Each structure stands twice: as C-alpha cells, then as structure tokens.
Amino acid sequence: MWTSSFNRPETRAARHRKWLAWGALVIVLAVPLGVAAASPLLAWRQPIYIIGGFAGIVGLCLMLVQPLLALGALPGLSGATARRAHRVTGHALVAAIVLHVAALWITSPPDMLDALAFAAPTLFSTLGVMAMWLVLATGALALLRKRLRLSPRRWRRLHLPAVVAIVGLSVGHAVLIQGTMGWWSKLALSGLLIAAALTAVWRSLPRSPR
C-alpha cells in the first residue's frame, strides 16, 4: 500500500533543519533587542521613551518576519497557516508602530507635531512618518480588501510597491537614528530585511507565459 508523502514521519534531518531555521530567526530578532537593552543610552531615558523605542525595534523585526512568511520560508508554516500568520504579524506590526508613535508623542508632543507635519529638521523623522502612513494605509487596505472587491492581481499591484517603499523608508529611518540598536546589529537586520523583502516581491511578480 502506497503511503502519501504527507503522512510520512518527519526525518531527523528535516527536524534539524527546522530547528536551525527557527533558531537562526530567533537569534536574528533577539540580537538587536539585546543590544538595545544593554545600551548605555537608556540610562537617563524615561520609561515611556524606552517603550516607544523598543516598539520601533520590534516593528522592524516584524517587517523581517512578513516576507519570510510570504515566501513560505519558515518551517511548519506554509499555505493557509502562513497566510494567517502573515495577517496576524501585519496587525502586530501596525500595533507596534502605533505604540512607537504614541510613546514618542507622550515624551515630546512638539517634536512629534513637527514630524507629522513634515516640518522636523531631521531626515529620519520624515522617513519614519512616511513609512508610518504607508503601513497604516496598507493595513487599512488589507482590512477593506474584500469589501472593495480587490482581485489578487490588483491587490499585488498595490501591495508590492507599498512593501518596497515601506521597507526602504523604514530602513532609512532606522539607519539614520543614532540610537540604542548599535550600528552592526542595525545594519545586519536592515540588510536581511531588504534581501527578504526584495526576494518576496520578485517571486510575487506575475510571470509572462512562455
């Protein structure tokens, strides 16, 4: 009697690859958070400012998870499960950004007003606000996708350029800030994010029939 491949027991090598993949992801996400937590720049900061800063770091980490889910690159998560995880992670990303902005608003309302009005003297503020509005707009569009009756093709045409813009703006925002993440962890996370996002976008592009 033939046995379906879906019913075959997982091999030891497959289990090892799964653990290695998830372990690598945990390390990639934990290192920037650990570097930030150990930063001496936190010594004189208010708790609400620290919360806001870490919300921003978590948001950048979640941005890396999103294309990995879209690619089906995380073992054990594929198909419908990966799509559900992608939606949940998207909601978490929006929440992290809202917390990031709200905490910074509480810390310094005038600075946030300048940033939201695109009147801030620093480029990273402008890039961050642009990324924020794009994330919120993309999240709202995802929630209204069925009501707007967006076809998969039209959704891709709207979603993929937004992904490229959000990643580019967010990386620029993070890199220009002289904050708690440290240069090497910030650049490593940003590089992985760009690579994962571009790969996901490239694989999502429609292919012309040969």
TrEMBL record:
One of its GO terms (cellular component) is membrane. The keyword Membrane applies. The keyword Cell division does not apply. Residues 55-168 form the Ferric oxidoreductase domain. This is Ferric reductase like transmembrane component. It is a multi-pass membrane protein. Keywords: Membrane, Transmembrane, Transmembrane helix.
